[in-house]
Amino acid sequence: MRMVQSDYAILIALKPNPKSYTELKKEVRISRPVLLRHLKRLQKKGLIERDIDTREYKLSKNYVYKKILSNFDELQKLSDILLPILEEEEKITQLTDIKDQFKELSGLLGRELVKLQFGLISLFKKALEQEEYGKAQLLVEEVSVNVITPWMVFLFYALWQKKDVALSLLDKELEIVSKK
Question: What is the pLDDT of residue 18?
Answer without folding.
Answer: 93
